[in-house]
Amino acid sequence: MSQILKNKNLEIHVDLPTENYNFSRFDWTGKITEVKFQNISLSSVERTDCKNENFFGKGFYNEFGIDTALGFNDTEVGGWFHKIGVGLLKKDDNTYECTKKYEIIPAEFKVTTELNKVLIICQSKSVNGYSYVLKKEIELHKNNFTIKYYLHNTGKKDIITDEYAHNFTAINKDLIGPNYLLKFPFKLKPALFKKTVNPEQKIDIGHNEISFNGSPNEQFFFSNISGGESSNATWELINIKTGIGISETGSFQTNKVNLWGWKHVISPELFFNIFIKPKQSAAWTRTYTIFKVN
User: Looking at the whole model, is its pTM more than 0.85?
Assistant: First the structure.
């Protein structure tokens, strides 16, 4: 049963690790499926045309190792490798694809709930020299909520990966279009973008903001929009029609920021680089603040 954190302003729905979404991509620890501000929805879904929504992302799902999962390259075909926050995945060929459906042996999960927070602990098996303990705490405050991450390397090999939140966002279910403005703390340099997918030319790139001259019927995607430069990890999305905004602020510097979206959803993504020696740990936070715009 979903855990609901709620006060007079915010309502957050958190699916427990083994319920609903059970695919091999997104982290199972603290699947934030829905966020409401004064009963106005702030969350969306990855796809509206899927037959099984439990195979796709929604809300504020996050992922470890989108490009290469932990230990994939060290594993023989037919063996098992780690997907942090999920469990062990079976390697069926030599190319890792995050959207592929892999056979899963789930990790061990423990959940503790309080009135304003949920703590989920994920403990992995030891395979091929890799193992870890992941702790994630989701805490509700007056006008924001914080996700605290703690990753401890219990294995014999270094953990080298990254983590990001996909942030499937839409405000009051308003379609992506001229009512939205997305702001970043750095100058946008399209010439330095690693990849640009803007087939309908409905996404306009400004100095440090992105706007829309129409509602995109096709998916859009921009990678490395900070040009690979280190920046404060933050973004701010405003919906002019409702006068509501949402921002994310990480406790870290980031040198990788991506943006994906579609007609019904926009997803700014702040990546956190992870390098943890054996017996060492890393901790970071993501804070989401909801506000009204004058």
Answer: yes
